[in-house]
Write a structure and sequence with these properties.
Blueprint lengths: L2 H23 L50 E10 L9 E6 L8 E5 L5 E8 L2 E5 L6 E4 L5 E8 L5 E6 L10 E6 L10 E5 L5 E4 L5 E8 L8 E6 L5 H4 L3 E4 L5 E8 L10 E6 L5 E3 L2 E4 L4 E4 L5 E7 L2 E9 L2 E3 L2 E5 L4 E10 L1 E8 L10 E4 L2 E7 L5 E7 L3 E7 L6 E6 L3 E8 L5 E8 L9 E6 L7 E4 L5 E5 L6 E6 L7 E2 L13 E5 L7 E6 L8 E8 L4 E2 L5 E3 L5 E7 L2 E12 L5 E3 L4 E8 L4 E6 L6 E9 L6 E9 L5 E4 L6 E6 L2 E10 L4 E7 L7 E7 L3 E2 L2 E4 L6 E7 L5 E8 L5 E4 L2 E2 L2 E9 L4 E8 L14 E2 L2
Length: 793
């Protein structure tokens, strides 16, 4: 047989074999880099600790750092994700994270990096809803169907960029290392970690980022231990040169390996189980002024034989956990030694699950509530519209179920779980609730009336709601202090405080409200204002004794030519008329002149139309402002906030670039606050006189100040407290209120100047505390200011 014919037969046989293998195994035909289904470029495919065993090494082309799920091919779906910068350039090497929506089960995630064309392809995802996340863009939800292919696109800011270098333990640059990132929160959230880029041949990297930047960065590369996590933060562009440049990520030594084998409840190898490992007892380290967190978590999925291998791990004690639908694996701990490979087996049993219902004390379902099991991060669920929830893959043992719902007290309930489904009924209660029924003087339900609870001595409601068809109401307040109740009919402008009813302490039930006739809107104020002119337009308004404003629209009649007006109907009570002037501006618009003139008070009885006659409105005076920046002060976004002492009105004025300005302002007394960025706020009390009096002039020197992190911690035994921070001059530099419904410790960013600051705290129980701290430097920092509180007797 001729040689050329023999070669031809061999080539045909080889092609048939390749085609048969492709049909049997379902392997896609390789495509060009950056195209759907193509392998990722080598620099972005280095996930750090290698995830490999005999049956998995052939699938290194899967998504970066994670194993692709292995559902049956008939149920698989494809997802194509394109990422581009806002200038249209493809975002190559950009991290993409896909999370399955699995209510009641541990979320399964897959990470990948885009190719040179800005495209990442997930070739075998289960046919369920997924959330696609890309740093710098809003997450998108996609619903994947079996056998389908979906495409989503993201646009991310090119940003200012984070630049640095990856080196090994000897300082040698490492090419191809994967750069990982996670949000810069108070604690590391490894579940949010994802690859965002790769190091070049010389070990350098550049990652796009938009200000403000607050994120953790780390590097991983095959044959090396992962670098510690480093917090990178910058608020302003001027900080980028030092905070976002020259970042060194130093890899660790290649020391230990771990082989994990999972067995199902039937004793057979458990394929496609999610395995997570994390180091235990790792403390933060400091390298000069940089704080580093060496702990890393790694996640992968077992292969056909139930095994997965993690390489490039540091020596120490590691926790090992696994998740698989319907199976419970008891977590293990294992010690890893230098240059050694350890093995651990996880044997599963039939898991328990919870099918529960959450209601309030009256049996009404509670929706959008959160339920989880203590100590089991993956065991959590959310109630639906019927109050139903489910949590799966739990240990068949005694667990503590934690439930959280808005407006209800947190609930902890111990439950003994057996294998399979366990039915649970949760009843949520509240100790900060005022519950009752409202009716009118004739005994009819006050259906549709607005009911509000006002803390005694306060102006603003802490809770409000609408009475139902039977007049019933439930109000959940924010503080356990006495409250008064206010009511307003469905079409009423002003609520009426029921001073003779209450006050009520939260937790009170069975409250009976009788809405008096004087709370119904039936009175009015009539009078005459100066008619509009070419220079000024007159606008009437009204407020009650609780400083609630009712502007000149709705139930207000005003004839601009004659000046006649009528405001109402109003409930009986005490009112003040407020008049503001508006001056013509461009394009036929009018601009409000600063300040308001007040007339009154006027007492209204039910069904009364009170005639206040002709009102004389003063013409505006002039306010001038000239500010000077002290040495070292760089004011930005300067504003003047005026607050009228006669009414509840306020407004903002903005000086020019030279820190000067002149504005028309109605006569009266005002509290003026000058605030912005880069300086300490200034407070003034001013009196604006009517013309032809002299112009009111405000002069001030702005002292340097900076937004600095301040840590506020609730005093022991308090669930809510008010904090007032004063500088050395006694000026209020910052005030805040928070409670355990938000957090026990919060971090705030007030503008502070140098020197000693005192802190005055009033707890929800009425106890008082005080403390102090000193601001020595105005250099921006992430290290919070802290202080100790001592009780005031």
């Amino acid at each position: 047989m001729p040689t050329w014919r023999l070669l031809g037969l061999l080539m045909v046989a080889f092609a048939v074999a390749v085609l048969a293998t492709w049909i049997l195994l379902g392997t896609p035909v390789p495509l060009a880099e950056g195209e759907p289904g193509a392998p990722q470029p080598a620099p972005t495919s280095a996930p750090g600790p290698r995830v490999a065993d005999a049956e998995q090494r052939s699938s290194d082309r899967a998504a970066v750092g994670d194993r692709q799920p292995a559902p049956e091919r008939s149920a698989a779906a494809r997802l194509r994700v394109r990422v581009a910068f806002d200038d249209g350039q493809a975002a190559g090497g950009y991290g993409v994270r896909v999370v399955e929506r699995r209510d009641g089960r541990a979320p399964r995630t897959t990470n990948a990096s885009t190719g040179a064309g800005g495209i990442a392809v997930f070739a075998a995802l289960p046919a369920v809803p997924h959330v696609v996340e890309v740093i710098g863009a809003a997450a998108q939800e996609v619903d994947l169907a079996a056998g389908s292919e979906r495409s989503v696109s993201f646009t991310v800011p090119h940003g200012i960029g984070i630049e640095g270098r990856v080196v090994d333990v000897r300082g040698t640059p490492v090419a191809g290392a994967t750069i990982w990132s996670m949000p810069g929160r108070a604690q590391l959230d490894h579940r949010a970690a994802q690859p965002v880029g790769a190091a070049h041949d010389d070990g350098t990297f550049r990652i796009a980022a938009a200000l403000p930047v607050t994120r953790f960065l780390a590097a991983r590369a095959r044959g090396h231990g992962a670098s510690p996590w480093r917090l990178v933060t910058a608020r302003y562009e001027r900080e980028a040169a030092t905070a976002l440049r020259g970042i060194e990520l130093r890899l660790g030594e290649h020391r230990a390996a771990l082989l994990v084998t999972c067995f199902g409840r039937d004793g057979a190898p458990a394929a496609d189980a999610d395995v997570a490992i994390a180091p235990l007892g790792v403390a933060a380290q400091r390298d000069g002024d940089v704080q580093l967190w060496p702990g890393h978590e790694y996640r992968a999925r077992t292969g056909e034989h139930g095994r997965v291998r993690f390489d490039d791990l540091c020596a120490g004690t590691w926790s090992v956990a696994a998740h698989l639908d319907g199976v419970w694996f008891e977590p293990r701990e294992i010690a890893l030694a230098d240059a050694a490979t350890a093995a651990v087996s996880l044997v599963g049993v039939e898991a328990a699950s919870i099918a529960g219902t959450m209601t309030d004390e009256r049996g009404r379902p509670i929706s959008a509530a959160f339920v989880r099991c203590r100590g089991l991060d993956a065991a959590r669920g959310t109630t639906d519209d019927g109050g139903d929830f489910s949590i799966h893959d739990l240990p068949p043992a005694r667990v503590d179920l934690l439930a959280f719902a808005d407006s209800f007290d947190d609930l902890t309930q111990a439950i003994d779980l057996g294998p399979g489904t366990n039915r649970v009924q949760l009843v949520m209660r509240t100790s900060l609730c005022l519950t009752g029924r409202a009716r009118n003087a004739r005994g009819e339900p006050a259906s549709g009336f607005q009911i509000a609870a006002i803390p005694v001595g306060g102006d603003d409601p802490s809770a409000s709601g609408q009475a139902d068809a039977e007049g019933r109401f439930d109000l959940t307040v924010a503080q356990s202090v006495p409250h008064l109740l206010r009511v307003a009919p469905p079409a009423g402008a002003f609520p009426v405080t029921l001073d003779r009813l209450g006050p009520f302490t939260p937790g009170t039930t069975g409250i009976e409200i009788v809405v008096p006739d004087r709370a119904l809107p039936s009175a009015a104020i009539v009078g005459v204002l100066p008619p509009d002119t070419l220079e000024h337009r007159v606008e009437p308004g009204v407020r009650d004794r609780h400083r609630q404003l009712f502007q000149a629209f709705g139930d207000c009649e005003h004839d601009r030519a004659s000046g006649r007006f009528r405001v109402g109907p109003l409930p009986a009570g005490t009112y003040w008329l407020l008049v503001q002037l508006r001056a013509p501006a461009a394009l036929g618009r009018t601009l409000r002149i600063a300040g308001e003139q007040q007339f009154g008070p006027y007492e209204l009885e039910p069904d009364q139309a009170l005639d206040v006659g002709t009102l004389a409105v003063s013409m505006p005076g002039q306010l001038e402002c000239a500010l000077t920046a002290a040495t070292g002060c760089e004011p930005r976004d300067v504003k003047l906030q005026w607050n009228s002492q006669a009414s509840a009105s306020w407004g903002l004025l903005q000086p020019d670039a030279a820190l000067a300005g002149s504005w028309p302002m109605l006569p009266g007394e005002y509290d003026l606050t000058i605030w912005g960025e880069g300086f300490v706020a200034v407070e003034r009390h001013i009196t604006v006189l009517a013309p032809p009096a002299a112009t009111t002039r405000v002069e001030a020197t702005l002292e340097p100040g900076q937004r600095l992190p301040l840590e506020l911690a609730l005093p022991a035994g308090e669930t809510r407290a008010t904090f007032v921070v004063r500088d050395a001059s006694g000026r209020v530099a910052y005030d805040d209120e928070f409670g355990t419904d938000e957090a026990a410790v919060v971090r705030r960013l007030p503008v502070l100047g140098r020197g000693r600051h005192t802190v005055q705290v009033v707890g929800g129980s009425g106890r008082r505390f005080e403390g102090a701290f000193v601001v020595e430097s105005l250099v921006p920092t992430e290290r919070p200011l802290r202080f100790e509180l001592r009780p005031v007797h």
